Amino acid sequence: MMTERKQRLLSLDFFRGLTVAAMILVNNPGSWGHIYAPLEHAEWNGCTPTDLIFPFFLWIVGVSIAFAMSSSKADAAMHGKTISKAIKRGIILYLLGFFLAIFGKIMGVILNGKSLIEAFETVRLLGVLQRIGIVFIISSIIFLKCSTKTIFKTLISILVVYWALMTFVPVPGVGYANMEKETNLAAWIDRGILTESHTWASSKTWDPEGVLSTLPAVGTCLFGILVGVWMRRKDVDNPTKVAWLFTTGIIAVILGLLWDLQFPINKSLWTSSFVLYTGGLASVGLALCYWLIDVQGHKSITKPFVVYGVNAITVFFLAGLMPRLLNLIKITNADGSKTGLLEKFYAIGYTPFFSPINASLVWAISYVLGFYVLLYLMYKKNIIIKV
Q: What is the 3-state secondary structure (H, E, C) of the chain?
């Protein structure tokens, strides 16, 4: 559905756009074998700048829920209609993610005569868009049906329960408190529910957007909702809002780092310490953006990222679809082998002119700039594509 652009919190659109642009940057290197360290995920425990991107986005989803659904929350008669819309939107997000996951397999069926049944038997069931959709549905219902105090208690309960499950529930055949990739409780549940045929292709034995770790991901979104509720308050002046956001963010970061000593910060497991640490940094980031953009009025630098922010899901989906489409076009090399169109373009237009790691980075930057052109044209025509 296309609608005209409505009045929005500019700093939130800027922050969302910055996050999505960063997501596209790290998801599309020219070569996965040549990436600067800050643009890679942590090997397991720990947190790189890249590990902040997805939790920041889910946190922003929470802030947006508070802004978009507050009028419906105040009117109990609207709850059913709003929940229905949230469920519909969440399902569409899930299906968009599922489409990206199965697209290549379907093309294999069409072009190479592979089995359609096999395509569905081996498709990954969860992923980034799927998690966004599931978290959006659950968090929207909690926001509409619960008081702010109850939402806060729910967030704390989620973090504590997840920690207790991962720490005290024994993994069959392994034992207690195992936080290794393949032998922790979340991985065991993924293998049991999703099966190895439907988990992340790079691991097969666990999924970074798996079943159990979706629980604390809801916590990240609820953290954002609580911030959104505070930011909407009319009885609090802007300096107080900013001071509160900074203070809350710093406290959350400290608590996350302290909890890391016992329950390590880990994106793939989305640990409770990871929720606090990343939610705290997101709070500090939005506080800075809000103060500079909405309060002080420094708006000249915002447009490139606002352009990304108002069509965030659109650009994320297209950025995932485009390489899948273009690499279906095969170019025959001199030795008779075939290369996908994008891979060939990278080999001709980038690798001869840069070192391997810089060619990979410049390619990723080109991706971001290329999609900016498309999004800018949409922005100029006041087009926002909503699912």
A: CEECCCCCCHHHHHHHHHHHHHHHHHHCCCCCCCCCHHHCCCCCCECCHHHHHHHHHHHHHHHHHHHHHHHHHHCHHHHHHHHHHHHHHHHHHHHHHHHHHHHHHHHHHHHHCCCHHHHHHCCCCCCHHHHHHHHHHHHHHHHHHCCHHHHHHHHHHHHHHHHHHHHHCCECCCECCCCCCCCCHHHHHHHHHCCHHHCCCCCCCCCCCCCCCHHHHHHHHHHHHHHHHHHCCCCCCHHHHHHHHHHHHHHHHHHHHHHHCCCCCECCCCCHHHHHHHHHHHHHHHHHHHHHHHHCCCCCCCHHHHHHHCCHHHHHHHHHHHHHHHCCCEEECCCCCEEEHHHHHHHHHCCCCCCHHHHHHHHHHHHHHHHHHHHHHHHHCCCEECC
